[in-house]
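note to self — DONT lose this again. spent like an hour looking for the file last time. sequence + predicted structure for the chain T wanted, 224 res
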Amino acid sequence: MQAIQSNNEVHNFKIPPGWMGLISMICLSVWIFIYEKIYLPQAKKRSKKNIRLTTRHRINTGIVMAILCMVVAAIVERNRRDAALKQGTLVSPQSILLLLPQFAFSGLNEAFAAVAIMEHYTNHLPETMRTLAGAIFFLSFSASSYLNTAIINIVHLVTSNNGKESPWLGGRDLNKVKLDYFYYLIAGLAALNLLYFNLFSCRYLEKHVDKRSESRHEEMNEAA
C-alpha cells in the first residue's frame, strides 16, 4: 500500500509497486555472495582458517536490521502521509524510491537472522534428523504469521474503538490511518525480542553450536 500511494514515476518511467519486494531478495543475495565469496576467503587467507561470523552475531544483527526496518518504514510513512494530506491527494508526491531502505533492511534481516537460524537447526539436530531442520524452520514462520495476524487484529480492535483519533490500521487509504504507529510498535516488540534472545540464548549458541558449525564447514572445505 505504501508503494501504491507513493509517486512511482522516476525519469518518465513508472516503477510497478510490486517490484519493491525484489529489493529484499536482491539484498539477501548480494550479502550472501559477499559473505561467502569475499569475506570468508579473505578471512581464511589472513588467519589460515575459516572464520565465520558466530550464530549469535548474525542473529543479533538480523534482529537489529528488523528494528531499523520498522523505524525507517515508520518515518517514511509519516512523511508520505503528511505530504499526501498537505497536497490533498490519494497518492503522495513522495518518491517511491524512499521505500528502498526499509526493503533493503528487510532483506538483510533474512540474510543474517534467517540463514543463521536455519544453520542452527541443521547443526543442532542429529544427523539422522537433519531433514527436519527445514520443517522446523518453516513451522516457525507459520507460527509467526499467526502471531502477526493476532497482533494486527488486536491493534485494529483497540485503536478503532477510539473515536477521537484515527485508527492505526484498516481501510484502503493509508492517509486515513496511522500505520507509522504500528511500525513503531513492531520495532518495540523486535527490541524486546533482541533482549530476550541475548538473555536466554547467547551462551548456549556460543558454547555448543558455533564450534560444531565451524568444524563442519572446515570438513566441507577440505572435502571440496
